[in-house]
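Researcher: We're teaching a course module on how sequence relates to structure. For the next exercise, students receive a sequence and then see the predicted structure as tokens, so they can try to spot secondary structure elements on their own. Here is the exercise chain.
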Amino acid sequence: MREEETDWALYHKIQAAQSITCEQLVTDSGLPEEIIAASLQRMERGHLIRQTPEGIRLLSLQEMLFSCRLANTMKDTPFVLENGVIRVKKNGDDSDA
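Model: And here is the predicted structure for the students to work with:
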């Protein structure tokens, strides 16, 4: 299965569940944890989902647009967006929103 197909299938599983864990995705999809983790990373980088300790959820359209805008415009600012919270970057903190 191509990466895009995996991402699409998992995206719809997340959508149907509202909130789901990585372990539940492994069980429900039958895919190895490594493939699930890689797919989740791609979807998070693509501003489609958010992973938290409580589970994985889809971002709303507004959250997607805001997250994408911040990632593209705030790279050189002293601020970063983490889990919906804007915070000041620490010295040497290169994390992107």
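Model: If you want an answer key for the exercise: The first helix runs from residue 3 to 17. Helices lie at 3-17, 22-29, 33-45, 61-73.
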